[in-house]
Amino acid sequence: MTLRLAIILPTYNERSNLASLVARLGEALEGIEWEAIIVDDHSPDGTADEARKLALADSRLRVIERIGRRGLASAAIEGMCATAAPVVAVMDADHQHDPALLSGMLDAIESGEYDLAYASRFCEGASTDAWNRPHRVKASSLANRLARKVTGMELSDPMSGYFMLRAATLRADAHRLSGVGFKILLDILATVDAPLRIKEFPLAFAARAEGESKLDRAVVFEFLVGLYDKWLGRFIPTRFALFGTIGAAGVVVHMAVLSVYLSIFGGSLKGHLVSAFEIGQTLAALVAMTFNFLLNNALTYADKRLAGFLALVRGWAKFALTCSVGLLANVGAAAVLVRFGFHEYPAALAGIVIGSVWNYALSSRFVWGRYS
């Protein structure tokens, strides 16, 4: 039989879900020649090892274990480009996407009437009741409204993570896809120039079978990340832009702390070796650094987010260590400028800019791991 379909399963810590999902795929695709490509981002729970174990007993399974690379979108692209199947599907491995829809989606693509089929959580006949995450439903609805304006397509769920298309369509524009964030379907819709004929399938979005979702927060933020990368990522690297945006918010925090300190202690240390400004600048830099660490952990590095008290403390310590030279450059440069007659606040801004480049370069590597 000729291979007709490849199902791409991007995974991270999905070991306990794989065996049952493979069984469900077999039932849903009986009579269809298919393969599943499990693209795992070096999960600490041994997902890749479990996938290889299953593949020994089922030749329809293939495994790609990525070392030093992370991200659902990029994993999906890599998997879709690694198959000889003429049609490719992307779905989650956590059982929230019903494999029973695959055969109907495949029929729609193979009929020649449609270029892309996808499962919608919000069209007529769909349901999110079992998901039991009303805050995520609201956030996804907002992101979908924004996505419709960007793509110009009146789809009920362009942020869906469950879809199917011809492999040739994907490969033709794979080099133009950003591969950033989680919403690969939106990336495809915003990138492909030719108008796509799309068929929608209602999805009863299920609760996650095992483990915890990595996507509970920042759904709209993830959308904006992909949007930025699509439009401006070629000029300013997306991760640096995110880091810098949070850094800009940190500037507000920094200036607020410095202003409060100087208003209280500004005249108390005149004539001392260390001025009130230098102490205030140091304190403000430490507070802003903590603020930046927490927001970067939650947003910029959302898919590598440090969780748990000890992990956060260790992460903060690494962040503080890698930023220490940047902090010294920040405070030192600002202090020199003040002593040469510059006003305190422009001097503080100059110190922040000097320290920020160092902070980004090392924290990206040593706090959250290698990241592109």
Describe the structure.
The protein has 372 residues and is an alpha/beta fold. It folds into 2 domains: 5-232, Alpha-Beta Complex (Spore Coat Polysaccharide Biosynthesis Protein SpsA, Chain A); 238-366, no CATH class. It has 13 helices and 7 strands. It has a 7-stranded mixed sheet with strand order 3-2-1-4-6-5-7, with helices on both faces. Helix 2 links the parallel strand 2 and strand 3 (61-65). The two termini are 40 Å apart. Mean pLDDT is 83; it is low at 212-217.
Name given to the CATH architecture of the largest domain? Alpha-Beta Complex
SS strand fraction: 5-15%
CATH uppermost class of the largest domain: Alpha Beta
Task: Look at the structure and name the CATH superfamily of the largest domain.
Answer: Spore Coat Polysaccharide Biosynthesis Protein SpsA, Chain A
Topology:
Elements: E1 5-11, H1 15-28, E2 34-40, H2 47-57, E3 61-65, H3 72-80, E4 87-90, H4 102-110, E5 116-120, H5 134-151, E6 163-166, H6 167-173, H7 184-191, E7 198-202, H8 219-232, H9 238-265, H10 276-300, H11 309-322, H12 324-339, H13 344-366
Helix pairs in contact: 1-2, 7-8, 9-10, 9-13, 10-11, 10-12, 12-13
Quick recap:
The chain has 372 residues and is α/β, with parallel strands linked by helices.
Provide key terms for this protein:
7 strands, elongated, 372 residues, seven-stranded mixed β-sheet, alpha/beta, single chain, 2 domains, Spore Coat Polysaccharide Biosynthesis Protein SpsA, Chain A
